Amino acid sequence: MAWHITDSVDEFLAGAGDFLRARPVENTVLLTVTDTLRQRGSQVYGDGPPVFGWHGDGAFVRTPPRGALLSEMPPAAAAELAVSLAGTDLPGVSAPGAVTEAFAAEWQRLTGVTGEVVGRQRLYRLVSLTPPDPAASGAGRIAGAGDRDLLIGWMTAFQRELGEEPQATAEFVDDKLAYGGMLLWEDAGQPVSMSGISRPAAGMVRVMAVYTPREHRARGYAGAATTAVTRAALDAGANDVVLFADQSNPTSNALYQRLGYTPIEDRQTVEFPS
Q1: What is the pLDDT of residues 49-95, one digit of tens each?
Q2: SS3 content of the chain, % helix, strand, coil (to 5)
Q3: The whole model's pTM is what?
Q4: Which value, to the nearest 10 degrees, does the dihedral of the CA atoms of residues 173, 156, 152, 94 take?
Q5: Rg of the chain over all Cα atoms, to the nearest angstrom
């Protein structure tokens, strides 16, 4: 089956929506990105027009200047997608490991460019929420408009710690504030940690942007913020709560497993040097 490529999110969801919703946990990023594009417009992630594609066995989304996000798919479909995207200014892809490898191998054959693995992430799904013991001091609250500057500053620092160049940080914060999607953990009235959550999509929500500034670390605040935002998602009716952790960070991976999250899938990001 050939790949269908479009710049219309509605056309993409008409063609790929059932495929994505059938496995909302594994397709969490594609679902939440397309939902944000529908809610906030095509320029929310950058000036370039988004590109979408679907196949009988897979789907992808690209929001320039970022690379493409690929779903699980057979290696042959990944190689066919590389052929379909050859000639574009694709800077990289993010996908389950075998998918990334198949795409990168075909991309190298077509372009002569060797991909470089720049990140490995592990997807977790909540099984049963287990609050940290002992509990951190303080309490969580939903962030509001008055917290915008603080959140933008923390998101910028968070992206830089991940080795990323901050992009669309204000847009990300504004989107989350629009639906109460950011939580601040406060101790003695001072914000000390944050956590975010996506809009529901097919009964799934994703915890994201869990960050504690360096001066507030090692006090249990990240676990407390993650627990609070997870509980809020469950209370709001989420069927599945998921999150990603950098595989190179044993602290966060151990924390999420203590809170009741279990590994589901590993993904890797490959960049293609220009």
Answers
A1: 999 999 999 999 999 999 999 999 999 999 999 999 999 999 999 99
A2: 40, 30, 35
A3: 0.94
A4: 0
A5: 19
The answer for residues whose C-beta is within 8 angstroms of residue 83's C-beta and 6 or more apart is: 106, 110
Tell me the CATH number of domain 126-266, given options 3.90.1150.10, 3.40.1800.10, 3.40.630.30, 1.20.1250.20: 3.40.630.30
DSSP string, 235-250: HTT-SEEEEEEETT-H
> Token pair for residue 207?
């915890």
Closest CA to 203 of 37, 55, 27, 52: 27
Half-sphere exposure of 211 (CA within 13 A, CB side): 19
Q: Which residue reads 């529908």 in tokens? A: 38
Domain boundaries, the chain: 4-114, 126-266
- CA dist 104 and 215 (Å) reads 40
Give the number of residues written for the chain: 274
Q: Tokens for 48, please give them.
A: 């370039």
